[in-house]
Design goal:
Helix content: 40-55%
Number of strands: 0
Region (Disordered): 101-121
Protein name: Histone deacetylase complex subunit SAP30 Sin3 binding domain-containing protein
Oligomer: single chain
Shape: flat
Order of helices and strands: HHHHH
Mean pLDDT: 74
Distance between the termini: 60 Å
Domain Histone deacetylase complex subunit SAP30 Sin3 binding: 33-75
Number of helices: 5
Amino acid sequence: MSKTAPAANARNAYPKGLTTDFRQISPQNLFDYVEYFSVSIRPDAPAPELSCNIASHFLTIDVDEEAVLGGFLKTCDGEKDYADDNKVVVNAVPSVMAHKRKRAKAAARPGEQVAAKVSRR
């Protein structure tokens, strides 16, 4: 099921009929989406422009709905490795940076506080 994106002439025009509201998502998560799906957008774009462009991109994604629903049902039945075997249900290739970020997701970022459990023997 492929949908076409609305015309990109108005950067801040949010697509009509989209039930997902990307305007409620934090700018960091919007940039993560941009990076993961390799969406071309200005790096200094403000959050409203980001959300509009991401919403337009979201409308163009072709999803295999049967695979998604099948995966959901199998996960509900307790087949946890289904998600590992079928990670790609969207016809998009993540960028190299997104792959690296996924690997380092648990790593602390500069300036973050971290906690460590110290046990004495």
